[in-house]
Design brief:
single chain; mainly alpha; disordered N terminus
């Protein structure tokens, strides 16, 4: 019965996640087959945390609602824990795009052609996009500039990178006389966006710290009661207690969802991506 309860709890949690995504107007990005390695590893980690957390909770308490809540928390834990690193990576990529645009501008100002400037920048490109730039430089030896740039934009998958690539595409088709000034303007606007994001992150740091303190304190207190004073939690063994526990979990989940949504910065859609077939 415990295994059945865990399975049903996991399925119910996944359904609730789908409902939350639909209400929030978001889509769930599933890993694509050609990039299945990291995607499958991340999904496997989520499932493992959900199953392990739900099983431990069910074994300790016998609460189906508690097992469901812990399973959902385990499934979403990588996003909650890694959100700061993800935001930092996005900011680092924006800075790298701005720096690479300035590299191309300066190299072309020294009487270098566009393709030669791209190849020359591959070895010294910022670390956040160095791999993509090196692949682009290698691709130019066997492919025309325009298709290579479009594939480069798809690999970066960033709206700001699309602006830089669009400027390079226009320069490839026409005279690149004003390309240097355009790249400089794009780099300046990108750095302004980075500054704005850093200010937002600094302003929200205190709120995130408060949330972590409250969450850790609540979890530690509940775990202490489970270990040292199990009788205090006996009211949750009843059906009414499970309903109250579900309501408390729903309140916590809604608060975390609101915090995660408020921390997300909506960016413009890409305009160089190919239309779906």
């Amino acid at each position: 019965m415990t295994l059945v309860a865990i399975l049903l709890g996991g399925l119910a949690g996944f359904g609730l996640m789908l409902v939350a995504a639909g209400l929030g107007g978001r889509t769930l990005d599933l890993p694509r087959p050609q990039r299945s390695g990291p995607g499958i590893d991340r999904l496997a980690l989520r499932v493992a945390l959900a199953v392990a957390g739900g099983a431990v909770m069910a074994a300790l308490t016998g609460w189906p609602v508690g097992a469901l809540l812990v399973a959902v928390a385990g499934f979403l834990a990588p996003d909650l824990v890694g959100s700061g690193a993800r935001r930092g990576a996005e900011i680092a990529r924006l800075e790298a795009i701005a720096a690479w645009a300035e590299m191309l501008r300066d190299t072309m100002a020294a009487a270098g052609g566009l393709e030669q400037s791209i190849v020359a920048s591959a070895a010294v490109a910022p670390p956040a996009i160095r791999t993509e730039v090196q692949v682009l430089a290698a691709r130019l030896s066997r492919q025309r500039l325009a298709p290579a740039l479009r594939e480069f934009a798809d690999e970066l998958a960033d709206p700001t990178a699309d602006l830089v690539v669009a400027a390079l595409l226009l320069a490839a088709d026409k005279s690149p006389k004003r390309l240097g000034a355009l790249l400089g303007a794009l780099a300046k606007s990108t750095r302004a966006e980075v500054t704005m994001r850093l200010r937002v992150e600094a302003g929200r740091a205190r709120t995130r710290t408060s949330v972590r303190v409250v969450t850790v304190s609540t979890i530690a207190f509940a775990a202490g009661l489970l270990v040292f004073n199990r009788s205090y939690l006996e009211p949750y063994d009843s059906a009414l207690g499970q309903a109250v526990l579900g309501l408390v979990g729903l309140c916590f989940g809604s608060a975390f969802w609101w915090l995660a949504r408020s921390a997300r910065i909506d960016t413009s859609d890409r305009f160089l991506q190919e239309a779906p077939a």
